[in-house]
Amino acid sequence: MLEDLVGSRYRTIKERLNKNILDSLLQSELLNRGIKAKYQYGVFDYNGNELIVDSVSNINKIRQSGFYSQLFPNEMMETPHFLSVFFPHKKGYLLKTMWLMLSTSVLLLIIIVWAFTFTIQTIFKQKKLSEVKNDFISNMTHELKTPISTISLACEALSDKDMSSDEEVRKNYVGMISQENKRLGLLVESVLKSATWDKEDLKLKKEDFNLHQVIIEVSDNILIQVESKLGSLHKNLNASKTIISADKVHITNLIYNLLDNANKYSPETPEITIETENIKEGLLLTISDEGQGIKRENLTKIFEKFYRVPTGNIHNVKGFGLGLNYVKAIIERHGGEISASSVFGKGTKFKIYIPFSHNENI
Percentage of residues in the chain with pLDDT exceeding 90? Predict the structure, then answer.
């Protein structure tokens, strides 16, 4: 096409090229290829000397542009000349024309990363649930096996005519069956009730009572177990205002659970301390022990349902892992708070804040 610009092949390159026609041809060719970006062009000889330049201020950029082509390549005897095209706003033009594609790509990348993260989290959650389920089944099997075995042995003994003829022996075995049967009932009931602890339909039967009186009653009941291990239980009841409006049964149960844990997880002689004090509009109940303590990585999980602190393969502490989950659920339903701190090998401390009164519907 450029041969059309040639008036005579023996004229100089400046005479053979018309700047306006060259610009029109460039513009037409770029539009045919869908390129509407602004451009600048120049014609240079073999040594890089400019002959025709569209923009004097960008001569070097035009000369060094990667978009160039040789003029009149079929003329073997002539010194080669080159047409170079420079796009001053190339990056901005590319971003402008590709913004939809780039935005779509970024959106797809975000969706893929989110889906991958969600999948990984789901896998870990399912793995954790599987481990909790297996631990719970193992604990439940162990806990239920003992009373069932005891009842079975007692029934076998009663089926023996010689043993059942003795009224005292018979009463002992019947009492044993009754006691183990009650224990089975309590175990099953604790599992069934755990499903309602975190539901809204759990209703509290609130009444006004003295928290110190409940603490004394519970501590007296568990003192026998503590003293059987040659331990001691200290009470520092320093709160001056002790009347609270709460569910007495649940509050009694949670105090018993915490004291029972402090006793069970003290491998040698238990040293348990109960303290109370008034803070804000309620009481702060602190129960601490000098037992085996809890490792830091396990401390954040102790309030999870069915979770039990690992003790290796030794099943020396009974339970389903429902106690602390129950305590947390009841405390929160009363509008209170519970926190735990522990030093492994030195003991554990629980702090429970119980407000004097709380409307659970708020």
Answer: 20
Count CB-CB contacts under 10 A for residue 21: 13
Is a pLDDT exceeding 60 seen at residue 84?
yes
- Least Cα distance to 338 among 329, 197, 296, 346 occurs for 329
What pLDDT sits at residue 194?
59
Q: Which residue has the tokens 């539901």?
A: 199
- Calpha distance 71→245 (Å, rounded): 98
Report residue 337's pLDDT band, with 50, 70 and 90 as the boundaries: very high
Structural domain count, the chain: 3
Domain co-membership, 272 together with 334: yes
Domain identity same for 124 and 77: no
Which range of residues forms the domain containing residue 162? 94-196
> Any residues with CB less than 8 A from the CB of 222 and at least 6 apart, and which?
233, 256, 259, 260, 263
Let me know: does 350 contact 286? Beta carbons within 8 Å.
yes
Sign of the CA dihedral with 316 first, then 318, 324, and 325 last: positive
Start-end of H helices in the chain: 13-16, 19-32, 59-63, 90-159, 161-164, 167-193, 211-228, 248-264, 296-299, 323-333
This prediction has a pTM of: 0.52
Q: What is the mean pLDDT of residues 127-143?
A: 72
Greater confidence (267 vs 235) lies with 235
- Residue 120 exposed, middle or buried by CB count within 10 Å (0-12, 13-18, 19+): exposed
Nearest 5°: phi and psi at 239? -70, 135
Nearest to 193 by CA among 245, 253, 252: 253
Query: Is the residue at 201 inside a domain?
Result: no
Helix 248-264 crosses helix 323-333 at what angle (to 10 degrees)? 150
Which tokens belong to 329? Answer: 């659920």
Give the CATH number of the domain where residue 122 resides.
1.10.287.130
